[in-house]
Amino acid sequence: MATDSKDLETLVLVRVVRLNAAIAGVVTGLLAGLALFVATNWLVLKGGPVVGPHLALLGQYFIGYRVSFVGSLIGFAWAFVLGFLVGAAVVAIYNRLADLRDPRTRSR
User: How would you label 79-102 residue by residue, b for 16+ Cβ within 10 Å and e otherwise?
Assistant: First the structure.
């Protein structure tokens, strides 16, 4: 009986905490893209003599990005791709580490 409960506990701890890398990537990408989109459009609507000099530096990394409405769309796409890659990589590493805790996968 004690062995069955220990096996169940191990199964729940390892199998429940595994994450889907694609879903985590999409969510992270959407958050990053929306954050850049909102920040850019906030500065565009705010206006002023010089609009967003610090945010404009992202144009060095994101080709085509400018502090403008069209630039916010380009920035959204770039931030989504980067966020997707980072989110998926983090979850993939996490899942590999979770596999190390599962005694059944150690023998493979």
Answer: bbebbbeebbeebeeeeeebeeee
Tens digits of residue pLDDT in 52-74:
899 999 999 999 999 999 999 99
Q: What is the pTM of this model?
A: 0.78
**Cβ pair 28, 84 in contact under 8 A:** yes
Distance between CA atoms of residues 62 and 42, nearest Å: 19
CA atoms of 98 and 85, how far apart (whole Å): 20
Q: How many CB atoms lie within 10 A of CB 25?
A: 22
**What size, in residues, is the chain?**
108
Helices 69-101 & 2-16 angle (0-180, nearest 10): 160
* pLDDT of 14 higher than 60: no
For 28-45, b/e burial (b = at least 16 CB within 10 A) is bbbebbeebbebbbebbe
